[in-house]
């Protein structure tokens, strides 16, 4: 299982990006702007968890591609 976080700062389109911390993504938010989502088998459950806090959440296009809706 991988550890996930969501960026507490929204993007210009309003999305809060979900990141896989174990993927060494180049686009991780600063640690102060991360909300831990815990360990998940995949990005689908991590994004669902993020949506409990930030309804407009989306997977990172680089480290959570399967959950990125564009």
Q: Can you describe this structure?
A:
This protein is an alpha+beta fold and 70 residues long. Helix content is 16%, strand content 30%. The chain has one helix at 43-53, and strands spanning 2-7, 16-20, 34-40, 57-59. A four-stranded mixed beta sheet has the order 3-1-2-4, with helices on one face. The protein is globular, with a radius of gyration of 10 Å.
Radius of gyration over all CA atoms, rounded: 10 Å
Proportion of residues in β-strands? 25-35%
- Going by helix content, strand content and strand pairing, the class is alpha+beta
- Measured as a percent range, the helix fraction is 10-25%
Written as H for each helix and E for each strand, in order along the chain, the element string is: EEEHE
Largest sheet: 4 strands, mixed
Shape, principal axes of CA atoms:
globular
Q: Which regions contain 5 or more consecutive residues with pLDDT less than 50? A: none
Number of strands: 4
| Discrete helix count | 1
What is this structure, in a nutshell?
This protein has 70 residues and is an alpha+beta fold.
Question: Which key terms come to mind for this protein?
Answer:
alpha+beta, 4-stranded mixed beta sheet, 1 helix, 4 strands, globular
How do the helices and strands line up, and which of them pair or pack?
Layout: E1 2-7, E2 16-20, E3 34-40, H1 43-53, E4 57-59
